[in-house]
Amino acid sequence: MNETTVCVVGNVATQPVFRETATGASARFRLAVTQRYWDREKNAWTDGHTNFFTVWANRALATNVQASVSVGEPLVVRGRLKVRSEQRDGQSWTGADIEATAIGHDLARGTAAFRRAHKGETPSETSARPEPNWETEPTAQAAETAQQQQGQQEQQGQQEQREHHGQRGQRAQRRQHHQEPALVM
């Protein structure tokens, strides 16, 4: 099938609308994609035309969009482009939809913390999980545990050294045992 696959980078323009249907979850939101170009006369970046896309997500992707996406966030969206035309109040309207296959935050413009969604988990359960704090200073208990581990490693190293020396001594004894007697004249 010939489909037009696109990858667009833009900002979320509307709060995602989430629905549970008989065929599965569905979510939609508007994405604003603004062209930027270097203006030589002004010697600065300038905003060009803004395109708005309606992004549709289904099933697990829709559930994760509901839990992860908010207005104003920069996103990268990959999916199938569908251009639709319709008549409203005697006027012709054209809209561009993207049936998303992948959606993620644009890490060139900020950071994100990934949390794997488990089957059967609802978005509220996913977002209720406490985030690990990777930048905390070690507590006294953690420092004590680290010292204990270091002591155990040192003891293990000393034991290995003793075993190594013991093996060397055994090898020397075996060599002496297998030596031929010296010739006596």
Structural class of the helices, strands and pairings? alpha+beta
| Alpha-carbon Rg, integer | 33 Å
Helix content: 25-40%
Low-confidence residue ranges:
125-142
Strands side by side in the biggest sheet? 1-3-4-6-5
Structure, briefly:
The protein has a 5-stranded mixed barrel with strand order 1-3-4-6-5.
Plain-language structure description:
With 185 residues, the chain is an alpha+beta fold. Helices cover 30% and strands 40% of the residues. The chain has three helices and six strands. The protein has helices spanning 59-68, 123-128, 140-178, and strands at residues 5-12, 17-21, 24-39, 44-58, 74-88, 91-105.
Question: Can you tag this structure with a few keywords?
Answer:
185 residues; alpha+beta; 5-stranded mixed beta barrel; 3 helices; 6 strands; 40% strand; flat
List the topology elements.
Blueprint: E1 5-12, E2 17-21, E3 24-39, E4 44-58, H1 59-68, E5 74-88, E6 91-105, H2 123-128, H3 140-178
Parallel strand pairs: 4-6
Antiparallel strand pairs: 1-3, 1-5, 2-3, 3-4, 5-6
